[in-house]
User: Fold this.
Amino acid sequence: MRIGLYGGTFDPVHLGHLLVAQAALEELGLDRLFFIPATLSPFKPGSQPTESNIRARLLRLALTGHTNCEVSDVELQRGGISYTIDTVRDFARRFPGASLFWLIGADHVAALPQWRDADQLAQLVHFVVIPRPGEPITSSPPRFQLHPLQGWPIKVSASEIRARAAAHRSIRHLVPAAVADAIERDHLYGA
Ligand code: ATP
Assistant:
């Protein structure tokens, strides 16, 4: 069993995230891929994300009909700052013997050795680096074996979606149609 774990704030989920998922499923031959929204990201100190039930609902809408992709609320249930090692230990217990692949943006690679319990983390998961336009893929830090994903890097970001929604500009084609509908209908992100 090959399991992908894709952590993030997903505030909101957008097409960049979904293209990462498709690339990971195909290139890594994953059996299942879990999108794992964080309660609070250790990488975004001081920023208060949108209520977790809204982010999770938009993720579920985005993944409807996507075979092999699902939302895990393990970090939302745990609350507080979402440390990757806690989540990985949880999946390692749930799926003994499975190969676990943790997807990270190229922007996070250099700081990997500073992640909580980095040594154990490096033993429990294979790290897969997501390409992102403007983010060079740096070499693996010591003790980490990184697997680069090819994918289809696009420049869309959640902050850009939030800014566009707040300015009443279109977010169509940047997020799945069902997510755009929900954001407009419920006036999320100031839309
Ligand atoms: P924000 O703009 O709010 O910082 P984001 O768009 O970067 O958010 P996150 O939820 O932080 O979204 O992303 C989760 C993971 O997906 C991170 O590892 C991030 O690097 C990666 N990611 C986000 N957008 C893209 C994209 N367009 N292409 C490739 N990877 C992406």
In short: The chain has one domain: 2-154. The helical segments are 15-28, 52-63, 74-78, 84-94, 118-124, 158-166, 177-185. The mean pLDDT is 94. DSSP finds seven helices and six strands in the chain.
